[in-house]
Amino acid sequence: MASASQRPEPVQYSPTARLVTVLLLLFGFLIGVKTLGEGFKLLGGDVIDVIFSATANPFMGLVVGILVTTIVQSSSVTTAMVVGLVAAPETALPLSNAVPMIMGANIGTTVTATVVALAHMGRRDEFERAFPIAVCHDVFNYLTVLILLPLEIMTGYLQKAAVALAGFLEGVTGVDYDSPFATALSASVDPLEGLAAALFESAQAQGVVLIALAGLLIFTMLWLLVKVMRSLVRTRVEGLVTNVLGSRAVLSILVGIVVTAMVQSSSITTSLLVPLGAAGILRLEQALPITIGANIGTTVTAMLAALAGSGANAVFGLEIALVHLLFNLTGLVLIYPLKATRNIPLRGARYLTSLAIRSRKLTLLWVGALFYGVPALLLFAERVFR
C-alpha cells in the first residue's frame, strides 16, 4: 500500500482556468433559459393558456412559486424559469401572474437552511443556537410576502415600478441592440432544436423535448456553478463572515449580497450560517442582515437569465427580474431599519425554536406545514371562494 507521502497531490487549477470554467457554466445556464422559452413556444397557445391560467389568481401563483422551489431546492432555478417564460415570444407568461410566483420562490428557498438546522436536533445546545438562525430567514420572507402581496394586489406597486425602471434601462442600455452575445446564444440553441426536430415531427413533441433539455441544462449548470464556486470560496466565506460579526449591519448585508452572487445560491449562504450558529460563533442578530443580503444577492441569477431574452419580449424578462430585485429591496427597507419591525423575525424565530425544542414531531410537522401546508391551504381557499 502506498504511503501518504506517495499519494498524488490534488490537481491545482490556475485562476484563469477557474474563471473560464465559471464563464462557460454561466453561458450554458443561459442556453438552458433560452431553450426553455423556445420549447414553450412550440407547445402551442392552447397548452400555454392551460398552464398559465392556474397562475391567474395571485394566491395560486404564490403556491406555484413555493412548491416548485421547495421541490427543486433552488429559487435560482425557479426565477430563471419564470424569466424565461415571461420573455418567451408569443407565449409570454403575463407579468402580473409572474410576480406572486417570484414571491413564492423567496419563501420556498428558505427550506434548505431549515433542513440543515434539523440535522442538529440530536444535540440540544447546538439545535437551540442553529435553528433560529435558519428560521429567521423563513419568518422574514413570509413577513415580506404578507406585506407586499396585498399591496401588489391593490396597487400593482412592484409591477409598475419594474416596468418604469425597465423602460429607463432600455433607453440607456439599448435593449434592442443586436449584440454578438445574443447571436451566439441563439446559435447555441439551434443544435438542440435540430435534435428535437430529428426525434419528432410534431411541434408539441419537439417542445416537450426542448423543455426537458432546458430543465436538465439549467439544473446541471447551476449545480456545477454552485459546486465550483463553493469549492473556491467556502473557506474564505466562513472567514469573511466571522470577520464581520462585530461590524455594522450594512457591511453584513453586503457580505450576504456578494457571497450569494458569487455562489449563485442564497441557500448556500444561509446554510453556511447554520453551523456557525450551532458552534456559537454567530448570534441571531448578526445572522439576520447577512440573510437579507442573501435575498438580494440571489436576484443576480434572474438578471442573468434576463440576458437570454431577445426580440420584442426581451424587456418583459428584464421587468420580472427587476420585480425580484425590488421585492427584496423593499422588504429590507420596510422591515430592517426600525428596531420594532426588525425584532419581529427575531422574536418569531426564537418562539418557533422554543416550540421546536419541546417536541421533534412538532418541529417536523411545523416545517411541513410551513412549506406545504400553507400552499395547500391557499389552494383550498382558492377553490372554495372561486
Model description:
- The protein is mostly helical and 386 residues long.
- The protein is built from 17 helices and no strands.
- α1 packs antiparallel against α10 (203-243), α4 (75-87) runs parallel beside α14 (299-306) and α10 runs parallel beside α12.
- The longest helix has 41 residues, at 203-243.
- It is globular, with a radius of gyration of 22 Å.
- The N and C termini lie far apart (71 Å).
Please write out the topology.
Elements: H1 15-43, H2 45-53, H3 58-72, H4 75-87, H5 95-108, H6 111-118, H7 124-155, H8 157-173, H9 180-199, H10 203-243, H11 249-263, H12 266-278, H13 284-297, H14 299-306, H15 314-335, H16 339-358, H17 360-385
> By helix and strand content, what is the structural category?
mainly alpha
What's the alpha carbon Rg, rounded to whole Å? 22 Å
Q: Tally the beta strands.
A: 0
Count of structural domains? 1
- Counting DSSP H or I runs of 4 or more residues, the number of helices is 17
Oligomeric nature of the chains: single chain
Proportion of residues in helical segments: over 70%
Task: Calculate the terminal CA-CA distance, rounded to whole Å.
Answer: 71 Å
Main sheet makeup = none
Runs in which pLDDT lies below 50 for 5 or more consecutive residues are: 171-178
Structural shape: globular
Q: Tell me the strand percentage band.
A: under 5%
Mean pLDDT level: 77
Order of helices and strands: HHHHHHHHHHHHHHHHH
